[in-house]
Each structure stands twice: as structure tokens, then as C-alpha cells.
């Protein structure tokens, strides 16, 4: 056994807890999880059946934690997990799983398969079988500060541009501000309108906010690749920044997995509860709306639909706020079939979008999104995740669909009246 | 050993042995699984009505939206044979009498014609899910020896019981003895095969419901 395989197997062994053992013991091979997975429904390839993606981990569980499995191992009847096998599983654990969680939502015996895949990735990355694209993203985040290699000077440059365009100062490192706004690299590089929208909305509602020079990046490639040690280092930056500035709330940007990393995994990664609140920008905006602080004027007159990011809705519990906000500004808001809790993934979540060799799969899987869109034919698609947005744009371009994709925060900001 | 001796053995020592393995096996497996524990979730919970482990235990008994259409045999066949099994096992008069004799608890039984009908329907449903396992890609791909074996373990008691009651194929005494033996085989194997989902699926639903319920998602 090679050193890296040995490490991977050891990590997988450590990952197995009561839920995992219960899930493996409960699976009856009914195949229903396959019907919920866009990589199966769009390719009809049974190897993409979600529960099959964790098969090596099942054998480790069986051989290490069950009486019969241990006996079988003792007499040489157990089939050990090999390096070659894990290499083959890379496509199943990374390229064809976006952590979307539809499988976990449908399993009749109740298995949370995404929970299992998330743990499986810890072993895969320890064994050296993570995709190069994700390895690069993690290395850049650890060494430079962001998966796309964005450094503070780039953020400052962006702040200046936004200040010039919107005529609103962007606060940096303001101690005691109520909100710490974090960003995803994608927003810094591709969607600067997000920062402008935040500035406009915060001025409108009269709340204090700030960016942090050490905690501007909210995404967490360590979580996506399945390396909790690195995920902890990355999330600790946000915690340090938030605690130093003594903010009440950290706002997760329009990014699905950043929300999961901060809101749900963060405290568990650093091993203590947070001293501040974490909210997705959509939750914050809906709170402003409910408190009567957010007052928009005018309506979008074209036909709008909303794409629910999986980590925000199904895996994060935020489903209604985005709809309340849409209704504030959209005259004609149409829901795609299965929108909300059971929405279909864009195909590039959970780090999949940074895996180059998985592109053909993402394009295949996008057919389900195309069907959802064809059913309601919107003029524009609104979402609240910069990664969904990029992946959707790629898919739309491939299938020659002329459909602009916009962010919800910027859409709201466009309806904020100018101050008198 | 003649037929009567065989019947006497399966009713006496055989049954005791099978029950012993079953009870110890179930306890062992439950400890083996749930003894592993899990870490406390340190993230701040979001409270939403209906987002809990107990709610998920109930909710997962119904098909997820849209999936009845894509997996009709799995769902409909599955419902019929699970309900059918429960009816046949727990509401057939001789079974009720057996439980009464063993532990002194009794309840009303269904007329034998109803049980007869339920048995046939259950067997038909089981054959349907077996065929579905063979023809449906993802299901066939996932299938291992354990799946076919577990099916047989479940089917044999139904078949032998029905044949015994109908006085078909073999003399009644021998068929009854085979029926009891097949049940014993099922009892002995249940804790160590996928049939153990009869116990763990409640735990699995609870974990899924609790962990996602912590996030305010009623799964």
C-alpha cells in the first residue's frame, strides 16, 4: 500500500460515524437516488448513481466496523480498496457530484448521500486523488488568499471603480460596523455590480457595513476538495476578520457553497460556536424588507424566473426570502417546474465548475436546466450565486439559448430610489 | 429424521436458536452502528416547524415529488409487498396464536381468505420488483448477490406458507416444517444482510431529518 493510499484509507476510516454506518446499513439498492441525480438522468450512465459514488467508503466501513466484514478481512475474503480504484472514483466523487443534495432529499430509507460524498472527498484528497483544478484553487486560496488568485490590491482597485461609478464610499476595516460584507472572487473579477449594489442598498437602509482587508474572500475551496484542515485555515480568516472588527453579522455573498462553508461548516471547522451571526445576502435583504427599511420603486416588466442555488435552498433552508424579494421588483415572476426545494442544480456546484475534465459532463447535465427553462420561457433568469451564474451562462451559450442571467442583489439595487 | 421429527425440531430447538441469533444479532448490529456516535453540530441552528428527525421518519414514507413517475414499480410494488408482508406476518391467525404462546400477547386476526389473497398479492408484487431490479439500469447496476439473496430469504416464507395452507406440492407436515425453517433462515440472516434496513432506516431517516432540520430544512 502506497503512503498516500494508506493516508486516504486512514482518513476515510476516521470519517465514518453513526450516520454513515446507519446509511450504509439501510441502503436497499432501490436506485431511486439515481433518478434524482442530474448526472444520471442526463447521461443514463448507471455509474453516476449517487450511492455508488461512495462504494469504496462502504467497503472500508464494512471491513473495519462490522463483525462479518472484519471476519472476512481476517480470512482474506475482503476486497481491499486500491489506489487504482480511488483514481477511477475521482470522476464519480468530484466531476459528477455538485453536493446538490437531491439524492439526499429523495432516498426512501433516509440516507443523506451528500453527507457521505462530502466525507468521501476527505479520503480522496488525502489519498491524492482530487482533481487538478480543485487542487489549484485550494493552493491559490491558501497561498494567495483566493481561489482565483485575487489579492487585496485587486479588491481595492475594484472598490475605487465602484466608488467612482456609484459615488458612494466603500468602507474598509471599519471597526464596530454592524455588517461585514464578504465576497467571492467571481464577484471581484466578473461581477463588480454586486459591490455597487451592496453600497447602494446599505446607504438606503441606513446600516453600517464594512469590507475587511483580511476577510474579503468568502469561498472555501478547502471544503470543496474535502480537506477540513485547509478549510479550517480558510474559514478562520473570516472569523479573525469578523472578530477583529467586532461586527454583529457576516454577510455571505451571492455564492452557494460560501454560505454552507460559513453558516454550517464554519463553527464545526474551527471547533467553537461563532461570536457573530452569518447570513446570506438574500436573508439580510429580506430582513430589511420585512422591517420596512427596503423600499423599492418601479417594476421589471419582462418575464423573470429564479434559479435556486442548491446550497442556499435545499441544503441551506433559504427558499422564501428570494421569492419575497423577486415579487418586490418583478411584475411577471414565473417559477420553473420543481423550483425551490427540489430545484435542479446548475451542474457546477461543490467545486465541479473548477474541474476542467468535467466540462463535458456539466454540458450534458445542463439539459435538465434547459427543460426547466423551456417550460416557462423567461426573458431573464435571476439567481443568487455567482458560480451558478457562470455555469448557467456557459450552458446557455452551449445550447444557444439567448437568456441573460443576473444577480438578485443587483436587480433589487436597481430599484432603490436615489437619495434626495 | 422423519417429517414429524423435523417439524418438532424446527418448532422447538430450531426456533429458539433462530430467535437467539436474531435478538443477539440485532443488538450487536445496533451497537456496532449507533455506538460510533457523531459530533455535536456547533453551528447556530435555524428553527423551522416540521424540520426534525421525527418528522422525516414519517415524511420519507411518501415518495418524493416526481419520483413516483420515474420509479413506479419500486414505489407501488414496494408499498404493496411491505404492507402485504406486515398483514400476512402479523394478522394471520396461526401467527397471532404463536406470538400468544411465546409471549402471551394477542390481538385480532384476519379471516384466512383475506390472508390468502394478501399472500398472493404480496408474492406478485415481489416478483414485479424482482423483474424491475433486472430491467431497470441503475437498479441492476447496483445489485449484488446480497440483493437476490435477501429477496429469496423474504420470498421463501411466503411461498412455503401459502403452499402449506393450500396443501400443495408436498405433504402438509413437511411443507409446514419447511415454512418454519425458511422463517428461521430469515431471522438468522436479517441482522447481517440488507434486510437490516427494517431497523436502521428509522435511524437513517432520523439522522437525515435532524441534521438537515438543524439548518431549518424539512427533508
Reconstruct the topology from this structure.
The complex is a heterodimer of chains A (420) and B (219).
Chain A: H1 3-15, H2 18-26, H3 32-36, H4 38-41, H5 55-65, H6 67-74, H7 83-95, H8 102-106, H9 113-126, H10 132-143, H11 152-166, E1 179-181, H12 185-189, H13 193-205, E2 209-210, H14 221-225, H15 228-245, E3 249-252, H16 256-270, E4 277-280, H17 281-290, E5 300-307, H18 320-329, E6 330-334, H19 359-376, E7 380-383, H20 386-398, E8 405-407, H21 408-413
Helix pairs in contact in A: 1-9, 5-6, 7-9, 11-13, 15-16, 17-18, 19-20
Chain B: H1 3-34, H2 53-59, H3 67-70, H4 72-91, H5 93-103, H6 112-135, H7 137-142, H8 145-166, H9 172-189, H10 197-213
* Count of helix runs of chain B: 10
* SS content category of chain A: alpha/beta
List SSEs of chain A in N-to-C order: HHHHHHHHHHHEHHEHHEHEHEHEHEHEH
- Sheet with the most strands: spatial strand order of chain A: 2-1-3-4
Give the uncertain stretches of chain A in residue-range form.
none
Euclidean distance between termini CA atoms of chain B: 55 Å
Shape of chain B: globular
Share in helix of chain B: over 70%
Uncertain residue segments of chain B = none
Content-based structural category of chain B: mainly alpha
Q: For the terminal residues of chain A, how far apart are their CA atoms?
A: 71 Å
**Gyration radius of chain A, in Å:** 22 Å
Continuous helix count of chain A: 21
Amino acid at each position: 500500500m502506497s503512503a498516500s493510499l494508506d493516508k486516504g484509507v486512514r482518513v476515510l476510516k476516521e470519517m465514518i460515524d453513526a450516520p454513515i454506518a446507519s446509511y450504509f446499513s439501510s441502503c436497499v439498492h432501490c436506485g431511486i437516488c439515481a433518478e434524482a441525480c442530474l448526472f444520471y438522468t442526463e447521461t443514463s450512465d448507471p455509474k453516476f448513481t449517487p450511492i455508488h459514488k461512495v462504494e469504496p467508503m462502504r467497503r472500508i466501513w464494512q471491513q473495519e466496523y462490522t463483525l462479518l466484514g472484519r471476519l472476512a478481512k481476517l480470512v482474506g475474503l475482503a476486497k481491499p480498496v486500491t489506489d487504482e480504484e480511488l483514481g477511477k472514483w475521482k470522476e464519480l466523487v468530484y466531476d459528477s457530484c455538485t453536493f446538490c443534495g437531491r439524492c439526499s432529499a429523495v432516498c426512501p430509507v433516509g440516507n443523506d448521500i451528500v453527507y457521505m460524498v462530502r466525507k468521501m472527498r476527505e479520503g480522496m484528497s488525502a489519498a491524492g486523488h482530487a482533481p487538478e483544478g480543485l487542487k489549484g484553487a485550494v493552493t491559490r486560496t491558501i497561498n494567495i488568499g483566493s481561489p482565483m488568485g485575487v489579492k487585496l490590491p485587486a479588491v481595492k482597485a475594484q472598490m475605487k471603480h465602484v466608488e467612482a461609478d456609484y459615488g458612494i464610499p466603500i468602507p474598509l476595516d471599519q471597526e464596530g460596523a454592524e455588517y461585514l460584507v464578504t465576497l467571492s472572487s467571481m464577484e471581484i473579477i466578473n461581477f463588480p455590480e454586486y459591490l455597487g449594489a451592496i453600497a447602494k442598498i446599505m446607504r438606503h437602509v441606513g446600516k453600517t457595513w464594512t469590507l475587511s482587508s483580511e476577510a474579503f474572500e468568502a469561498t472555501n475551496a478547502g471544503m470543496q476538495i474535502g480537506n477540513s484542515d485547509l478549510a479550517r485555515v480558510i474559514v478562520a480568516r473570516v472569523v479573525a476578520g469578523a472578530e477583529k472588527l467586532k461586527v454583529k453579522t457576516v454577510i455571505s455573498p451571492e455564492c452557494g457553497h460560501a454560505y454552507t462553508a460559513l453558516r454550517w461548516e464554519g463553527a464545526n471547522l474551527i471547533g467553537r460556536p461563532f461570536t457573530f451571526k452569518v447570513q446570506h445576502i438574500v436573508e439580510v435583504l429580506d430582513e430589511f424588507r420585512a422591517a420596512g427599511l427596503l423600499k423599492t420603486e418601479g417594476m421589471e416588466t419582462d418575464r423573470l424566473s429564479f434559479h435556486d442555488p442548491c446550497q442556499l435552498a435545499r441544503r441551506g433552508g433559504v427558499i422564501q426570502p428570494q421569492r419575497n424579494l423577486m415579487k418586490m421588483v418583478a411584475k411577471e415572476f414565473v417559477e420553473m417546474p420543481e423550483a425551490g426545494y427540489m430545484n435542479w442544480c446548475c451542474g457546477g456546484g461543490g467545486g465541479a465548475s473548477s474541474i476542467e475534465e468535467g466540462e463535458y459532463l456539466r454540458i450534458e447535465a445542463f439539459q435538465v436546466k434547459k427543460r426547466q427553462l423551456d417550460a416557462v420561457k423567461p426573458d431573464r433568469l435571476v439567481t443568487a450565486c455567482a458560480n451558478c451564474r457562470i455555469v448557467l451562462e456557459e450552458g446557455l451559450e452551449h445550447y444557444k439559448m439567448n437568456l441573460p442571467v443576473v444577480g438578485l442583489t443587483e436587480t433589487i439595487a436597481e430599484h432603490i430610489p436615489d437619495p434626495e | 429424521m422423519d417429517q414429524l421429527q423435523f417439524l418438532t425440531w424446527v418448532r422447538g430447538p430450531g426456533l429458539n436458536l433462530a430467535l437467539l441469533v436474531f435478538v443477539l444479532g440485532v443488538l450487536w448490529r445496533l451497537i456496532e452502528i449507533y455506538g460510533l456516535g457523531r459530533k455535536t453540530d456547533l453551528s447556530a441552528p435555524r428553527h423551522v416547524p416540521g424540520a426534525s428527525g421525527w418528522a422525516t421518519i414519517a415524511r420519507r414514507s411518501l415518495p418524493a415529488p416526481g419520483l413516483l413517475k420515474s420509479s413506479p414499480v419500486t414505489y407501488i410494488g414496494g408499498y404493496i409487498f411491505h404492507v402485504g408482508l406486515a398483514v400476512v406476518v402479523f394478522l394471520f391467525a396461526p401467527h397471532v396464536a404463536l406470538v400468544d404462546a411465546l409471549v402471551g400477547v394477542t390481538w385480532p386476526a384476519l379471516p384466512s381468505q383475506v390472508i390468502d389473497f394478501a399472500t398472493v398479492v404480496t408474492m406478485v408484487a415481489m416478483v414485479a420488483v424482482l423483474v424491475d431490479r433486472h430491467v431497470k439500469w441503475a437498479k441492476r447496476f447496483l445489485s449484488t448477490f446480497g440483493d437476490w439473496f435477501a429477496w429469496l430469504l423474504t420470498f421463501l416464507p411466503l411461498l412455503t406458507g401459502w403452499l402449506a395452507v393450500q396443501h400443495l406440492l408436498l405433504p402438509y407436515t413437511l411443507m409446514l416444517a419447511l415454512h418454519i425453517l425458511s422463517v428461521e433462515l430469515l431471522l438468522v440472516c436479517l441482522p447481517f444482510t440488507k434486510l437490516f434496513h427494517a431497523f436502521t432506516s428509522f435511524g437513517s431517516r432520523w439522522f437525515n431529518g435532524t441534521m438537515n432540520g438543524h439548518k431549518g430544512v424539512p427533508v
